[in-house]
Each structure stands twice: as C-alpha cells, then as structure tokens.
Specification:
With 347 residues, this protein is α/β, with parallel strands linked by helices. Helix content is 36%, strand content 18%. It has a seven-stranded mixed β-sheet, sandwiched between helices. A three-stranded antiparallel β-sheet has the order 8-9-10, with no helix packed on it. Helix 4 links the parallel strand 5 and strand 6. Helix 7 packs across helix 8. The longest helix is centred in the last third of the chain and has 22 residues. The radius of gyration is 24 Å and the shape is globular.
Length: 347
C-alpha cells in the first residue's frame, strides 16, 4: 500500500511479464481505439508515394501508370513538375497529383526517364537514375540533420521502380542485368514484361522462368526480398509474389463492351484483352502489390533499409554535403553534433 493506492500485478495464474490478453485483463482498456486514431490522422495528413518508371521508349510506361491509378498521371498526360537533363540521352521528368478516394489523400509522384536505353551506345545510361535516387536520400538526410527541421519532412525518395522489359521471349539483355543489379541495391525494383499480349501463354511462361533464372544467376535483388519478410504469414504471401515475378502486363485507358459490361481492354483481331482479368494478363497482380497490399511496406523498406543504408554510409564518411557526395560541406556535421552532445553535463 503506497499512500492508499493499491497496485496490482497480473491475475493469479496469468502470464508473468508476458502478453496480457482479454481474459487476463481486469477490465476493458480500449487500446484497439488506437487504430481509429491512426486512421483519422493518416486520412487528415495524407501520405506520399513516389514511383519511378524505367524502360526504353514504346513499352507503354505512361499508359500502364495511367491504368494503375485510373487517371491521367503520367508525364505525357500533363506538364511535368521538373525536367532535369542529366545527360545527352536521358532526362528525368516528374509529375505529381493528389488522388483522393473515400477520404484518403495520396500525393502521387511519377518519375519518368525518357531516353533510357534508346541509343545505339547505352553505356552507363543507368548512372543518371542512380544519381537521382541518391540525391533524394541526400536531401532527406540534410533535412533530418537540421537543428530546426520541419515537423514533417517532405519525402521525395523513390519508393518503387517499375522496370519495363520488352516482350522478346529471350533472356535478359546486358543493359537489363546491369541496371537492375546496380539499382536493386538502393531502391525496390519490380520488373514487368511490357505488352505481354504479344506473347502466347506458353511463351510468356517460358520467358518469365528464364528471367527468374537470370535474376538469380546475376544476384539481382528485386522486391519483395526474402530477408525483409517479418513473419510466416508475410513470407507465404511474398513467396507467391516472388513466384509471379516478372509480372506480364498490358496497359490501356480504353473501355470496351464485354458480355454487357464495360471493361478496360485492348482490342485485337483475336478479341479483347481484358487488362484486369487475371486469365488474360497479370496487371491486377501488379496493381494489388503496388497499391492494395504492399504500398506501405514499399515505403517502410525505402526508409528502414535503403535510406538507412545510405544514411549510415554517409555519416560514417564523416560529413554530410550540401549538394551530395560532390558538393560542399554543411556547416554542421554529425560528428560536431555528437561531440557537443557528449560535452553537455548529465541532467
């Protein structure tokens, strides 16, 4: 008895230092209400999702993005936020939209790379893309280290890169191997076979199998990675996804009448390829991965794995630079902050 206040431990026979569940509690606590609190806060603040599309011209990148989000969000549909000419061949173009559905607001940014892989000599054409991804990490890191930083740091980091493979039916090209091997270390890559309706079902199955063999043989990391699975349930779901990679997709923004219903599809001389029909292509699987089941995980992996790796490397180097690895030093480095912290007397 401490001042008339009675303290109680776990009920007799209950867990000692373990998990207290309904029957073990002395009454209703109401902790499940935190889910509603989180939901309200997220709906009020909204969230950001940044997706990059990479592949040679003519593979339907813009069309697929528009189909994914059922709106004109690609760079070809509107004026870009910025157009950054990185080299003579590759330009980065970004467009942003706020998409609202049932009270949930998402700021979607699509980064396109027109000119990638379109030249006779594509030597080192992946460098502008790697540079852009790392620059976004650097920007986020500098904001984190500011003394008076923003309450919510604007997130321009690339959360996912969709890499478009031509439906050749053969093996991965050297440019595909080199790009995915390099980029897979710093961002989550989801490879897709573009315009998959040009392949027969048998050709598609064989091509997907050859690509998976190439990915393993070359040590290419694609999303979702096994080492990031958190539990058995997630591992089971992700194994199914890994067995489906790369997704064979078809994109279109046109509707057609099929059995009395309007469906998104591409009309061919053989019939209509229904984009959202899993018997026709794997667009629905890609959509579910990116939006309905793994969007938050993509953001979490970006922050906890890729950005964290970059952050540790940069801070271990001793200073954060104003303009990236080749820029000028910030006045305040991590080390000076740590030194100042250690010199302060304990309170």
């Amino acid at each position: 008895d401490l001042g008339g206040t009675e303290t109680r431990g776990p009920p007799p026979g209950g867990p000692q230092g373990g998990v207290l569940r309904g029957p073990d509690l002395l009454g209703y606590v109401g902790i499940e209400a935190v889910l509603d609190q989180m939901r309200r806060k997220t709906m009020k603040a909204g969230f950001e999702f940044n997706i990059m599309v990479v592949g040679q011209s003519g593979l339907g990148k813009s069309t697929l993005v528009n189909t994914l989000f059922k709106s004109k969000v690609s760079r070809k549909s509107c004026s870009p936020n910025y157009e950054e000419k990185i080299s003579k061949t590759v330009q980065l173009q970004s467009v942003s939209h706020v998409i609202e559905e049932k009270g949930v607001r998402m700021k979607l940014t699509v980064i396109d790379t027109p000119g990638f892989g379109d030249q006779i000599n594509n030597d080192r054409c992946w460098e502008p893309v790697l540079k852009h991804v790392n620059e976004q990490y650097e920007k986020y890191l500098k904001e984190e280290l500011r003394v008076n930083r923003q309450r919510k740091i604007p997130d321009t980091r690339v959360h996912c890169c969709i890499y478009f493979l031509p439906a050749s039916g053969h093996w991965l090209r050297p440019i595909d191997v080199e790009f995915m091997k390099r980029l897979g270390k710093i961002v989550s890559i989801v490879p897709v076979i573009a315009k998959a309706d040009t392949l027969t079902l048998e050709e598609r199955t064989e091509f997907k199998q050859r690509i998976r063999q190439d990915l393993v043989a070359n040590g290419i990391q694609v999303y979702p990675q096994k080492e990031n699975d958190e539990d058995a349930e997630e591992r089971l779901l992700n194994n199914t996804i890994r067995e489906s990679i790369p997704f064979a997709v078809v994109g279109t923004d046109r509707e057609h009448q099929v059995n009395g219903h309007r469906v998104l599809g591409r009309k061919t001389k053989w019939g209509i390829v229904e984009v959202e029909n899993v018997a026709h292509c794997e667009f629905a699987n890609l959509r579910d991965l990116l939006i309905r089941s793994h969007l938050e995980d993509l953001k979490q992996v970006t922050h906890d794995v890729h950005y964290e790796t970059y952050r540790v490397q940069r801070l271990t180097a001793g200073a954060v630079h104003q303009g990236g690895p080749n820029g000028s030093d910030l006045e305040t480095t991590l080390w000076s902050k740590l030194k100042a912290t250690k010199s302060c007397p304990n309170s």
